[in-house]
Amino acid sequence: AFKAAVLIQQWYRRYVARLEMRRRCTWRIFQSIEYACEQDQIKLHNFFSYLMDQFTPSSSKERDFISRMFISGESYKEAELEKCCDYESIEVPDSYTGPRLSFPLLPDHATALLEAFQQKQQLHARYVLNLLHETRKHLKQLPNISHVSTCYSEEVTVCGAPWGNLSLLTSTCSLLLQNGLPSPSKSYVFNGDFVDRGKQSLEILIILFAFLLIYPKEVHLNRGNHEDHIVNLRYGFTKEVMQKYKVHGKKILRMFQNVFCWLPLATLIDQKVLIIHGGISDTTDLNMLEKIQRDKFISVLRMKKKKESSRKPEIQAINGESKSDTEAAGNEAAPRLSLQPQSAQAPSTANRLEFSRWLRQTVQDQIDTCRRLVDISESEPEELTYSSMVSLKDVDEPCWTYQEEWKQILDILWSDPMPQEGCRENKVRGGGCYFGPDVTEKFLEKYSLQFLIRSHECKQEGYEFCHNRKVLTIFSASNYYEIGSNRGAYVKLGPDLIPHFVQYQANKTAHMLTMTQRQGIPVARISRVEESAFRALREKLFAHTSALISAFKAYDGDNTGRITLSNWATAVESVLRLGLPWRMLRPQLVRSTEDGMLEYKSWLDDLAMEQRSREHIQSSLLEVIYRNRSNLETIFRIIDRDHSGLISFEEFQQTWKLFSSHMNIELTDDGIDDLVRSIDFNKDGNIDFNEFLEAFRLVKQCP
Amino acid sequence: IVAEIEKKITEAFEVFDRESNKTVDVREIGCIIRSLGCFPNEAEVQELLAQVNMEVEEQGGFIHLEQFLPVMTKVLLERRFWPIPEDVILHAFEALDENKCGYITKEDLVKHLTEE
Fold this sequence. Notes:
Number of strands of chain B: 2
CATH class of the domain at 103-303 and 404-504 in chain A: Alpha Beta
Shape of chain A: globular
CATH class of the largest domain in chain B: Mainly Alpha
Keywords (chain A): Calcium, Hydrolase, Manganese, Metal-binding, Repeat
Low-confidence stretches of chain A: 71-76, 303-398, 509-522, 698-703
Distance between the termini of chain A: 50 Å
Strand content of chain A: 5-15%
Domain EF-hand (chain A): 543-578, 627-662, 667-702
InterPro entries (chain A): Calcineurin-like_PHP (IPR004843), EF-hand-dom_pair (IPR011992), EF_Hand_1_Ca_BS (IPR018247), EF_hand_dom (IPR002048), Metallo-depent_PP-like (IPR029052), PPP_dom (IPR013235), PPP_phosphatase (IPR051134), Ser/Thr-Pase_EF-hand_contain (IPR012008)
Family (chain A): Belongs to the PPP phosphatase family.
Low-confidence stretches of chain B: 55-59
Order of helices and strands of chain B: HEHHEHHH
Region (Disordered) (chain A): 309-345
Largest sheet of chain A: 6 strands, mixed
Distance between the termini of chain B: 38 Å
Strand order of the largest sheet of chain A: 1-5-6-10-12-11
Oligomer: heterodimer
Radius of gyration of chain A: 27 Å
């Protein structure tokens, strides 16, 4: 009998081990696909750089078209914004049954909102704008770095965004019920990335801002990399708002854009613990961060080089060469100022000399204006209009270049820790850097801090220490990739600044998050997550069909149509570069093999059949679409300035032409025609690109 | 074939390699060995670990891929700890099922498994 027990034990252990392996492999798949997705951002950058640097527009139409892509997200003057946010004039019909807000907000309003959202009701546009207006007012007076003291609040709870695939009400209620409502003795810090995940980003923000206004001293928000205009375009927030608010969507989006850039950049607890969304770099400078005008940076991802000057006399960034011109003028302050529309007309052609001269002049004007202001009034920086952006203090201090400030914010929002020492560019994300334990050590020492808390990366257990427990990653959205994929966690700090963790994993069937101890994970959950991961992986494989065929053929010298499984694994990795354990994954991806060899052609055909394909479209074209779909979607959205979801047929064609010339793809005009014909035109020459993307199943959001 | 085996081992190892520095926590070794298809019991895992550790002194709770690879390769080549066929497991269950009723209760199972 003893022997029997041992046998069973062995068998069982093996079973558990396999489960664990499966779990980790699945995790790896999701992570690598997510990062590859973010890598698309780089490709997008490259595309724009290509357009700027190498593409010579062959007609003025093309030039117009391209420059439209580059006219920056406008920064808004106060007056314009007031007009935008003119919620008073919006009528709320009597038939509206949703919550009605009045300011100042009370906890009852929050409850009303939560209940309404649970019932899938929508907050009326008027109240949304009103809320955003008040939020903006509140955020404007906050410093770049919020300070929290455990003397006042005994306990600080830090969360990453606690929302993933779940219902908003479930998550929020659970968090607050388990941990308690914000109060003078219980502060909350929400560490960024409130949007772009799931279909309820709007509701999440509304609730979050509501809490911010109801408990202004106890709730703190940090900006994350998703509180960013360009990122919203790609990941779905823009779309969500436009879909839910057809009439006032544009206004609402603009307000959000503005509110995002007023979000504080970091939070400091007791001067000892720094909370930022992404991470740090070896050049992170807290003093600079405190003084930057954070609202200048509506999007940290905007293209930074601009050779074509925009029609609008605003400067978002300075081209390398003209920067040196302005330096010659001895004015480092130049690039930081935004210019009033009436002060000068920007030259309409990119005549660099004229341009920099004009620049210097207008900059000088600005400096003079500021100097005058300093003489006149010593205080009330609030009185300064939005357009004269240099604060009084800074005129006397060394001014940093726009580029330097921009880098500070980019690093804070996008960086990731790495185990190796040093600091290098974060090519995976396309922004920020990878920072090593030595960078952390130096930084903490420099500012007498104990440790850093950040989010930005999904962790299986909801939290993870690294760099000798000096960096803590906290990730609060359980089931981030898929139901069952990971736990969420939040951390509580008391005056001793020792972190206490609470982990949870939302259970689909229960209405409350269940706090669990470390438990074995039910098999069913693993399979579901696994399935999802493998589906995504198969799609990726399909998207690289032609590259894979070439790679396989390289191993199939005799042209037998078969290769060994070992070569299969090597080939797949060389094409996809996802760093996945292909040999472990093989049984799930390759169904039938004979004597260790794979018939690759039929395998690829099987993959293709899974994806809904359009037979009359060139298959290579289909592949291209799949491979670049998130970029295509982003580009479409940028072109679609009024967020209507429609772009004209010409714009569509031009986009394709530009894109394909950049990607060096052979694209016949017939090919494009076929493509277009397969889409239903609804309105006289306009293409609903949502339909287009739907038709090719391209609307799936990247996790 | 050895190369293929080594690649497999490396892959499995890397899945557990949190910091991408070719080391895994010693507690995960059991998992890795088992997911490669082997059926060692705890004692056998310890034995294996001792072999791996013999090459270097204090590893401090971490196993390096370089030490693990040759030992594990041998294990796979020799087909040590190979999976037990199903009917044997069935017998094992039957042996524990004293009353021959076709099932064992959870308590019984726990009792037997923890008696070791």
